[in-house]
Amino acid sequence: MESCEDARAASAGQQKECVKVAVNIRPLITSELLMGCADCVTVVPGEPQVQIGSHSFTYDHVYGSSGTPHSLIFQECVAPLTDALFNGYNATVLAYGQTGSGKTYTMGTNYASEANCGGIIPQVMETIFKKTEAMKDTTEILLRVSFIEIFKEEVFDLLDPHLHASLRAEGPAGAKPAVAPRVPIQIRETARSHAIFTICLEQKKINTCSSKVAISDELGDDIISAKLHLVDLAGSERAKRTGADGLRLKEGIHINRGLLALGNVISALGDEKKRKEGGHIPYRDSKLTRLLQARESSLFS
Ligand SMILES: Nc1ncnc2c1ncn2[C@@H]1O[C@H](COP(=O)(O)OP(=O)(O)OP(=O)(O)O)[C@@H](O)[C@H]1O
Fold first, then answer.
1. Residue 253, pLDDT above cutoff 50
2. Cα of 79 from ligand 1 centre, angstroms
């Protein structure tokens, strides 16, 4: 998982890195245990470091595999970004990893009920609702969310009930009934897609003083506005390695193109010299990077 924490850095004035990387090691699932799989990654006690054979890798945070518990991911990595959103800072959290590595579980992208509220997205929303409730007497708040899926370089609005109704209504022969049935929105359409959940927060202080003239200069009419993107990327494995063919291979090619473009944009933005010189940032190479750019993520602005 990568989180762009320039927001926290700016508000705390302490941390210089604008990109932080946290690794989340999920436990083996039943099917893996039945196949006799065993853990191959060990966490160095007390360090954000993992070992695979003789290789060591150090990150900003490591969760799971008896190191720091998974439950602290939100608190340590994402809660500061949620706080910063209220101070007007943009941020992006990217969940990146192989298919089945736990991205959807960690992000909570497949949230279906209160029973499954340990994921990042439900926790972010819960925190935002608590904060807005506490501020409601002093601040006008406009909260908007969007949830977009990119599948084979096509963009779908996951919060559009009509899209889901028509997808469900289409039978095997593709015949649509005259009236589309109402169906609950299912958050995740396909396993091999990127999903971007974006929260836009706008705040304006309410002038509660009866002497409006006296206070207007102090408060101004300023609207603080910021965005937080929570991105569940598609599985990162290379199509070559999966042995996929046909449709699956095509999906894999699109996914790899999106992830490659994302990597290239991050590298270009991380190159300070290039950025200062106004060098080319290849946003246009994929829908994923274009959407994140258009949405003014701190990662891409
Ligand atoms: N921290 C965890 N604890 C227990 N089970 C987990 C954990 N993380 C993931 N799992 C389980 O592992 C399996 C794969 O997880 P998940 O679907 O989130 O992977 P993914 O990386 O999103 O895969 P894909 O790329 O196909 O979307 C699921 O059965 C999920 O319930």
1. yes
2. 22
pLDDT confidence band for 73 (50 / 70 / 90): very high
Q: Is 100 known as a binding-site position? A: yes
Other Cβ atoms less than 10 A from the Cβ of 212: the count is 10
Token readout for 90 is: 């943009």
Q: 145, exposed or middle or buried, with CB in 10 Å at 0-12, 13-18, 19+?
A: middle
Residue 68 among known ligand-binding residues: no
Average pLDDT over residues 35-62: 93
Q: How far is the CA of 220 from the centre of ligand 1 (A)?
A: 47
Burial (CB < 10 A; 0-12, 13-18, 19+), residue 26, is: middle
Q: Check whether 174 is labelled as a binding-site residue.
A: no
Per-residue pLDDT reduced to its tens digit, 134-181:
999 999 999 999 999 888 778 888 888 776 555 544 433 333 334 444
Give distance in angstroms: CA of 176 to centre of ligand 1. 34
Return the top range by mean pLDDT from 25-29, 109-113, 265-269, 276-280. 25-29
Task: Match 């409601």 to its residue by tokens.
Answer: 136
User: For the chain, what is the radius of gyration of the CA atoms?
Assistant: 21
Q: Is the CB of residue 31 less than 8 Å from the CB of residue 50?
A: no
Cα of 227 from ligand 1 centre, angstroms: 26
**Coil vs helix vs strand at 250:** helix
Place of tokens 């994140």: 292
270 annotated ligand binder: no
Closest CA to 199 of 39, 89, 54, 47: 89
**Contact between residue 194 and residue 200 where contact means Cβ atoms under 8 Å apart:** no
**Which mutation among 96, 105, 151 tests ligand 1's pocket best, with the greatest number of atoms within 8 A of CB?**
105
Distance of CA 108 to the CA centre of its chain: 10
